[in-house]
Design a protein that fits this description.
Structural class: mainly alpha
Oligomer: single chain
Number of domains: 2
Number of strands: 0
Shape: elongated
Length: 90
Amino acid sequence: MTAFQKLIILRAFRPEKLLFAFQKFVVEQMGKFYVEAPPTGMDIMYKNLDPTTPLVFVLSQGADPSQALFKFADEMGFGDKMNAISLGQG
């Protein structure tokens, strides 16, 4: 039985385990690079910005990078110049 066929059977009988099985499948077939999030810090993101490129966070539930963002802005001397706009709930 191939690894892909195992995923199909898992989908039928244990769908709650599918996410982990997909990650394992990708690691085995393509490598760990494709399942690990790249290390990203505010300083790395800042280097990719310019005056016409905004920084937009698209977040999952429970994620809140605002404290790290405000801290970085203070460290860079932009704490009083930064504007934050929430486009979601609240």
